[in-house]
Write a structure and sequence with these properties.
The chain has 9 helices and 12 strands. With 261 residues, the chain is an alpha/beta fold. The strands form 3 sheets. It has a 6-stranded mixed sheet with strand order 6-9-10-3-11-12, sandwiched between helices. Helix 3 (101-113) runs parallel beside helix 6 and helix 4 packs across helix 6.
Length: 261
């Protein structure tokens, strides 16, 4: 890791889907080594923010900038952003029949790193990450996410994160649909990776995953805007009082809670 940490800077970001504005002016800075949580009700724009940061097709930024390590990446494709050190763990990982996890990971690794690696060399690198996360050989030999449980899909996403070694990772509702045991496994895996070489932007509805990953910063989104910020104690406050308390506190009782996230 260089002396200067990698930095993701979002300035005045507005975005729309199918002509409907979802993000209405987001300002956010995430540095390598920091952990951030974005919390908010359904329809507040959290997942839209994740997809716009990563350049996912169909999500159109209409104003503002996304700057990574001093470079404006707003107009870059998702794979170009990945090569620069950004990573997105999706809320709903897709199945890819006929492609094993190990082959997918090796192809992704070579694409992101821009270099060829021998099967043996990659297997050694992957095995180190598997042992760290407690992932068994059987999982990486299966077809990507095919027949995987919800917990297995999310654990596979965390393995991808570990293998690709990005500088900043966006985790979009990694806790979604997980039972208590799966949540603990996945969250513990993320907690092991968070450190000086990795900054994390964790998007979640609930405080429960933050029992295992203590964020440095918590940001509350309502109706496409970040309306409140604080430390880990803010997540506990939201769990206790709910999002309606934030609306009432800030005079947002009439804010739109429904919409496309």
């Amino acid at each position: 890791m260089s002396e200067t940490p990698a930095t993701l800077e979002i300035h005045g970001l507005r975005a729309e889907i199918d002509g409907k504005e979802i993000l209405k002016g987001i300002d956010l800075t995430v540095r390598q080594g920091e952990s951030h949580a974005i919390m908010g009700p359904n329809g507040s724009g959290k997942s839209t923010l994740a997809n716009v940061i990563m350049g996912r097709p169909g999500y159109k930024a209409t104003a503002g900038t996304i700057v990574f390590n001093g470079e404006d990446v707003t107009g870059l494709t998702a794979d170009q952003r990945a090569k620069r050190g950004l990573f997105l763990a999706m809320q709903y990982p897709v199945e890819v029949p006929g492609v094993s996890v190990v082959n997918f990971l090796r192809t992704a690794y070579q694409s992101v790193k821009g270099e060829q690696v021998s099967a043996l060399g990659f297997r050694k690198h992957m095995k180190e990450k598997m042992e760290m996360l407690g992932v068994e050989d059987a999982m990486v030999n299966r077809y990507l996410n095919q027949g995987f449980s919800g917990g297995e899909k999310k654990r596979n996403e965390i393995l991808q994160l570990a293998v690709l070694e990005p500088q900043i990772a966006i985790l979009d509702e990694t806790d979604s649909g997980l039972d208590i045991d799966s949540l603990k496994q996945v969250a513990t895996g993320v907690a092991q990776l968070v450190g000086p070489s990795l900054g994390v932007l964790l998007i979640t509805h609930y405080q429960r995953i933050l029992n295992y990953i203590t964020p440095d910063f918590v940001h509350v989104m309502v109706d496409g805007r970040i309306v409140k910020e604080g430390g880990a104690e803010l997540a506990a406050e939201l769990e206790s009082k709910g999002y309606e308390s934030i609306r009432a506190e800030l005079g947002l009782e009439d804010a739109v809670a429904a919409g496309t996230e």
